[in-house]
Design goal:
single chain, 268 residues, 4-stranded parallel beta sheet, two-stranded parallel sheet, 44% helix, globular, NAD(P)-bd_dom_sf, Ergot_Alk_Oxidoreductase
Amino acid sequence: MLVQLKLSLGANVASSFNSVVHGSLVLNHAEDIAKEFKSAKATGLVLLPNAIEPSQWSESQALLAAAKFANLQHIILISTYASHASSLLPSGVAWAALEKEAEETKIPLTIIRPTTLMQSMLYGTWGESICGRNLSVSMNRARISFVHSLDVAEVVNHTMAKPASPSTTLHLTGPEALTWDEVASTFSRHLDSPVLLSKVPLWVVQPSLWVRGKNPDEIREIINLSKYYEAGGESEVTSTVESILGRPPISFESFVVANKSQWPHLHK
């Protein structure tokens, strides 16, 4: 998610969010960072961290402290749909804590919470499964309103270009909530061979994760992600993207058509 959004944002953003800080940041550097903000005449800060990565958590704290020292006018925090103090996901709990720290700066804050990115299908286990034409999931009733990273990036750009407003939270989704059967059917329509859908019980998944060398925290996140989806964590469809951008969000089908060359059949 993080890499894809950075690529989508690109270098063409016309806004006053023009301060770039390089290198490793720690909390006691906040005043120095604030000076950089002021010298760049920055008015706002966009944060796109990994909330469960300790080093990025510390850097985010330093940047939030610097934003307060520099009296910035606006913070945009790109969070996650799962963010909640009692989230099923450990990462969701971490994101909720980071959102709270951003709120405590008392700077006008826009929190952007996207659902799972469509681009997640290009990488990792999902990407490999699709290339193998056998998509394996541990869910039966889940519906997911996947959102395109370009839609998220354009909402961020739009928010950056606007004057700061009172603190708000934006929930971004795609145009429809898909079942896994619908996901597999979409791939089957547009790839060179059908994608089969396998539904594997969670009690089978956990031992396989141990065998693959996953640590307990990673296993908990993966297992609870299936439970989160199954409980309807991302089944909501909002009109936020269309109301901000003036066009419908990009569909999952359009995403698959545009990227079908990214899933070559591994066993052909």
